[in-house]
Amino acid sequence: MYVITCYVGKGEMRMYEFDSKEEALAQLKKLKGCSILSEVVYFNDSSVIPIAI
Known about the structure:
Distance between the termini: 27 Å
Strand order of the largest sheet: 2-1-3
Strand content: 35-45%
Radius of gyration: 14 Å
Number of helices: 1
Number of strands: 3
Helix content: 10-25%
Largest sheet: 3 strands, antiparallel
Shape: elongated
Structural class: alpha+beta
C-alpha cells in the first residue's frame, strides 16, 4: 500500500491511499503543495519479510 501525505497550507494536511506504486506516482504529479509518498509495509506480510532458515 502507498500513501501520499499532502500539506496544502495553513496547517491543512490530506492523505491519499493507493494499492499500486504506479497509481500513486501518477497522482503525486498532479498534486499541488508539499507532498510525501510513503510505502506501508505490514510486519505480517510474508511476501516482503525475509524468513531466516
